[in-house]
Protein 1
Amino acid sequence: MTSSTHHLPRADGETAFTVNAQAMKFGPGVVAELGDDAKSLGMTRAALFIDPNVAGTEPARIARASLAQAGIDAAVYQAIRIEPTDTSFLDAAKFASEGNFDGIISLGGGSTIDTAKAANLLATYPDDLLAYINAPIGGAKPVPGPLLPHIACPTTSGTGSETTGVAICDLVDLKVKTGVLSKLMRPTMAVVDPTTTETMPAGVVACTGFDVFTHAIESYTARPYTSREKPASSALRPPYQGANPFSDIGAMHAIRLAGRYLVRGVADEEDTEARHALMFASTLAGVAFGNAGVHIPHAMSYAVASQNHTYLANGYETEGGMVPHGLSVVINAPAAFRFTADAQPERHLEAAAALGADVSGAAPEDAGEILAQRLETMMRQTNLPSGLEQIGYRDNDVPALVEGAYAQQRLLVMAPKDVSKDDLADLFRAAMRYW
C-alpha cells in the first residue's frame, strides 16, 4: 500500500476483497515432480496439452517421463494455436470431451494454458462458446460448477495464466479478442519451473516480459476495490475487484524484478539469473492481476491483436502473421499511462521508480511522462517496434481499433478514470509512434 488513504472505504462502497489463489510450487526442476502432483490430485488418465514448440524440449521429455513413472496415462494434444482462436478452442474441447479424462495438464505458454482451460470448461459443461464469452460480446454465462483438476506448467515468463481464471481467444468472424473469466477456471495447481525459459528466443523474452510488468502496473494503478458498490452477496464479488493491499504486494515486486532483469534477460540468453527472476515476476504479476484486474493497455491490446494477422514478430516467425500478446499490450502502454496518471500520480510515480526511473523531485503532474518515458526506453533497449505504425497500423485504422477496445468493458471499468471512445481514439493515435 502506498498510503493509508488509497484503499479507504467509500460511503456505501465495498469493504472487503477476496483472494482467489491456488496451490503453487516454484523452482528449477519441479517439472520432474509432475507425476506425483497429478497422482495427488487423483488423476489416472490426463489430457496433456503441449505447445508444439515445447514438445521436443527437455522439459517436455522430463514431464512425460514423470507422468509415466507415476502411472498416469497421458494423451497428448499439440494442435495449440499461439494466440488462440474460437476455432482452436473448440478443436481442443472436442479432444477433451472424447478422451474420458479425469484431469488436465498444460505445458506451454499462456496460449497453451488458456486452451486447456477452455477445453476443460467446454468438455465438462458443453455449450456454445459464445454463451460463456464475456459480455457485451457474449452471454457471460456463469461457469456452472467445478471443472476437472488442472495442473498448469508455464514455459514462458509472461502471461501468468497459470494463476488466473481467464482464457482469451480471437473471435475471428467478429474481429474481436476477448474471453471467459471465472474463478472456477483457475488451474488447481501451478507448477512453475524457471529452467523452461532458458531456451526462449530473445524476442519471446521481450514480449512476454513486457506483458509481466504491464500486467503489474495495470493492477497497481487499477481503481481501488473500495470504489465499487458493495455486492448484495459475496458470490457476486467480481474476479477483477480492483487494486487491493494483497495484489499491491505482488504487483510492486513484479515491477521491480522486471525493471532489474528484463533488458538483461533479452540481451543475454546465458543470463539464467535474469530469466529465472522474470519467471517468478510473471507468477507474482499473475496472482496480482488475477485478483485486481487490468485496464486500458489490455483493452487496447485485444483490438490491436485481433485486427492484424500479418505482422511477423521477432522470435515468433514460425507462427505466421500475428501480434504477440505482450507486444500488443506494451505498444499501447506509454500512451495509456500518460492518460491515467493524473488520476493516481503517486502510484504511477512509484511504478516508474520500481522500473528504475529517477523520480527525485518529480511533481505529481510529471508522473505519466516519467513512467511512459521509462517504458519507451526499455522498449528501445529490447528492440521492440516504435509504435503501431511499425506493425502496420495507420490513422484510418483508428475507428475500428476504438470499437474493438471499447467492447472490452470488463477491463475498461477497472481503469482509474473513465474512458470514452474519443479518449481511446486519442490514445491509439498517440501510440502510432513514440520515437
Protein 2
Amino acid sequence: MAFVAIGLAAITLDAQQGQGRAGAGGGQGAGRAQGAGRGARPECVNPKIPAAECNVGATPINWADPPLGDGPFLIESARPEHRNLRVVVVARLRQPWSIAFLPEGDILVTERGGGVDENKRPIPGQLRIIRKGVLDPNPVAGTPQVHAAGLQGMMDVVLHPRFAENHFVYLAYHKPVPDGAGGMAGETTLARGVWNGTALTDVRDIFQSGATRTESSRIGFGRDGMLYMSISASGTGPDVFRSADPNDYAGKTVRLRDDGTIPPDNPFVNKPGYKPGIYTLGHRNGHSMSLNPETGQMWMTEQGPNGGDEVNILKPGANYGWPFVSNGRNYMGPKVSDVPYQQGTEQPHVVWVPSIAVTGGTFYAGDVFTGWKRSYFVGGLREGETPRTGQLQRIEFNEKWEEVRREPMLRELHQRIRDVRQGPDGLLYLVTGEPQGALLRIEPAGPPPASR
C-alpha cells in the first residue's frame, strides 16, 4: 500500500492549487491551445511528477480529416469468413458521441456540442433520434441544459435493462454550474428521464458528482443491476492528482443504484475521507463501460497521454495507478513512470503504445459475424499523435480472455472513431468524432472468397 501513501501525500497542495480554475481539462491532446509552457504557472516550473507536466506537447500537426463521402465503402477484414464488408453512412451529425437502440429499431445518438456552427452560433449538446433510418431534423425534447465546451457536453445515453417496463433513459452530461470566478463550468452529472415515444419527460438529475474540470463520461449497467459510470479527470497539469484523491470523484468510476443512490455494499461506503460512490480510482479518461457477456465483468477503455491507452477490467476498490504509473509517455516524450506498475495498483488488460486515443468499446456477441465472437471492438481518434489515423480495432481473445491478435480497420476512411456498438440486428454501428460526423453501419458485402 506504499503507492496510496505516496499519492495522498502529494494531493493536498496540488488539489488546492487547481480548485479555482474553470473549464474542461486538457485531455487527449485537447489542451494544446491553452498549454503555455512550463513557466506559465508557478506549479508548472517543477512538476512533482511527470504526469503533472503543464506543457502538453510540441506544436501539433494540424491537418483536418478529409470529408467523409456518401459511401457505401467497401472494406476487408482479416477473418476470411468476413473478408468482404460494406460501410454504410446512416446519418450525418455534429460531433456524435454515443449510441443507444430503442426496441422498435430507432436509434438515439448524443451530440457532444461545443464550438460554433457556420453562422457563428454556439452548438448545443443534445440528443438526436434516427427513425426508420432517417435523422429527425429536430433534437429530442426534454433533455437537460448542457455545458458544451472543450471536451465537455452531452456524453453517454443508455437504456435501463428493463426499458420495456419503465421506459427509463439515462444521460451522462456536463451540467452548467458557476465556476466561482464569474464564469461557468461543467459538472459531470447523471440524469434519468422517461421516454414517451417522441421525447424525454420527467427528466431529473439523479447523481451529481460535484466534479468540474472533467472530461469524458460513460455509463453502463452491470449484471448486478447496478449502474457504473466513469468520471474522467483533467489529462495534464496539477489537476492529475485528483485521480488519486479519494475525496474527489474526478478520475474514478462510480457504482450506483438505478435511481442514482449509492449501494451500501460499495467498497468505500462509510470510510472516512472517501466519496461513497467510488467503485475504482486512479483513472485518467474513461471512454467506455462495457459488460463482458461471458464473465459479467465491466471493461473500461481509458486514454493515456502519448501512449499508455488501456483496457481495464474493473474490480471493487481497485486503484489503477494514474497519475503515478503508466505505460505511456507525456506529450513531450518523457515517460510518465520508469515502471508501469507499483504494489497496490491493478495492471491493464490491454495496452497501446503508441496511443490510438482509444474511445468507445463493445463486445461482439451477435449471429451475423460469427468469426468475430470473443472480439472486443474499440474506436480510436488517432495513432501516435498523427492526424488522419483514426480507426476501429478488433481485439480477438482466446477462451481465457487472453489477447490473440489486433486488427486495425477503417483506416482508409481517415475518420476519428468515437464510439462503436453492436446493434440488435447483429451489425456494428459506430460514430465518427468529427464536427461533420456520421453514424456508420458495418454489414456483410457478399460471400467470403473461395478457398484456394
Protein 3
Amino acid sequence: MNNQPRSAYLHIPFCHRRCFYCDFPVVPLGDKAKGDSGPGSSSIKSYLNLIHREISLFDLRGDSLSTVYIGGGTPSLLSSRQVADLLDHLRSKCGLQYGAEITLEIDPASFDINSLKGFLEAGINRISLGGQSFDNNVLQELGRRHSSIELLDSCDLINDSFQRGDLCSWSLDLIQNLPNQNLVDWKEQLLKAISKGPPHLSIYDLSIENGTVFAWKQRRNELHLPNEEVSFDISRMTSEVLRKAGFSRYEISNYSLPGHASRHNRVYWSGAGWWGFGQGATSCVFGQRFSRPRTREGYKKWVESQELRKIESSSSLIDDCKLIPCDDLFIVGLRRREGVDIKELLKRFNLNHKQFQIHLNELKIRWEYALKMGWVKQRGDRFYLTDPDGMEISNQILVDMLLWWESLSNLYSDQSIL
C-alpha cells in the first residue's frame, strides 16, 4: 500500500520588507525586488536553483499530488515563468492530479493584472491574498508595504478572475486584535472584506513573537493591545458576522463559503502527511516531521550535504526525524470543526475497552466545566470545540488536554510511539 503524501508545500522566503509582527524565515530584498530582473533577482534565482535541487533529491513517485501550496514570504515576487518551472518540476517528479488545488500566496504590492494572468497560465488555480487590514494607519503600524487602495484593487482583480472561472477559489487574510483595535473599527473591516467577494477568509489573532519589532515595542510598553474582554468580544463578533454572511468556521482561524475550504490546509490539521521544500519548510512524510534550516546559508549547506549523501528514496531517511507526537494530533484535531476522535488516536496504546473508558473519563473530568458550559461537545468518542465560545477559549481547553496526555505518557513511557 502506498502511503506517500499527496500534498506539497514550497517555501519562497523573499519579501520586500519584514512586517513588524513576522518571525517567519524570510529574506527582505527591498521594495524594488523582482524575481527575474533587477534588485534581488540574483538571490531569488540562486535560491530557486537550491529548491529545484532539493526536489530532485527525493523519490516522489506514487500517487500524484492533489494539493500544492507555494507560500512565504512573498511568492508573487517570482515571475510566472519561475512559478511554472516549479510546478513543472513537481509534475515531472510525481504528477499533479486533474483538479489539484494549487495555491499561490500573493501580496497586494507585488503583482498586477499581467502577472496575475501569468500565474494563472502557469497553473495556479487558488490565490491567498495577504491583506491584513484595509486601514492605512493600521497597515503602516504593521510595517506593511501596500496601501488600502492597493488591497482593494487586488481584491477586485482576483475576484474578477474568480467570477470568470479562471480561478477555482481565493482567500483573504486579515489580522484581528491589533493594537488600539475596537469593535466598531473591526466590524467595518469585516464588512469591507465580505463586500469584496472572497469565498474564503483567514482571520488570525495577532501573536507577539520573540525577535520581532512588536516584541520590542511590547517590552517598551508601546504596544497598546485590546484587553482580554475586548479581545474576546472582537473574536466573537468575527464568528457572528461571518456566519450571518454564509461563512462556515471549519477551523479556528479559517472560514469559507460552501465548497471553498482549503484542501491543502486541512491536510495539516488532519494529521496527514505532506512534502515540504525550501528554507525553513517543514515536511511530514511517513509519520516523520522534519524542518529545514531557517537561514539561506544553512539551507544551502543542508541541500549540498544531502546531495553528497545521495539521499533520494524518501525523506524518511533524513536523520533526526521523529514520529508525530500524539499531543500534536490532539491540538490540530481540536482546531477543526469536526474535532478529534479520542478512541482513534489512542489506538496506538493497544488499550482494552476498560482501559480506554478509564482514560476517557479522566479527560472528561478535566473538561468537566468546559463540557458543562458547552465549550466542548461530545459525540460518541469524538470531541469538538463549539463556535464561537469554545474556539475563543481553546488555549485553556488544550492545556487541560495536554496535562491529561502527560499523565498517559508517564503510564506508557516504555512505548516507542511516544
